[in-house]
Amino acid sequence: MNARPIAGIVLRQLYLMRGSPVRVVPLFAWVAIDIVLWGFITRYLNSVSAAGVDFVPTLLGAVLLWDFFIRIMQGVTTAFLEDVWSRNFLNLFATPLSIAEYVTGLVITSIATSLVGLGVMLALATLVFGLPFFHLGLLLVPFLLVLFCFGIALGIFASAVVLRLGPASEWLIWPMPALISPFVGVFYPLSTLPAWMRGVGYALPPSYVFEGLRAVINGQTFVASELAWGVGLAIVQIVLAGYVFSRVYRHVVRTGLLARYSAETVT
Question: 143: closest CA among 223, 80, 73, 227?
């Protein structure tokens, strides 16, 4: 891969944000609202609970991690959709730009934008609501790595869906995190789910993150091999998502769908 085309993809997104500050606000506004809302909910639950359970690390920590995953996924899909909305595909791929370089540029853009959201979430959750996230130290890194890898995989797959079905399928990709969340146990252990939902959850890397963090917070035994399994699943899913995107791209080029890309659904 050539670094110059990748830098060009990233630079284009930076120019879009610099030229339109409205694009910058969603990077931190919605995550800040989520943290503030759930922060006060956890404070209320702590005040009325007689069990002596601290809901800040269990609920607010889960919200922070899940929002981080959503920012990663949407960082990829939003950068991709900028090219959809501007009808820019023919301009991009008329150049010697490879699919790998294009997708890498989207991933780097996602990293940059999601770091902004993560910084805002950590600042609010730690300074305002006393979330003891930094007490985990370096143990936090592999948990974030799993969510990052799965967010990239889902973002690439969602982009492939839009590329194949057309811009009208955009509404299919925004609810994806919400559809996944019941299966991965963001706010509750997987043991509370019926057997068939647990089977789906074990195939999704985030379930290993939230199960592992709950074990650490509750002082239970942390099984590193289970988190390693989550890392392996996430990496495999990134590879599969990249393969799907490349196959879809070759299909839309071969059939002429790329040239006829419009605001309407293509089939």
Answer: 227
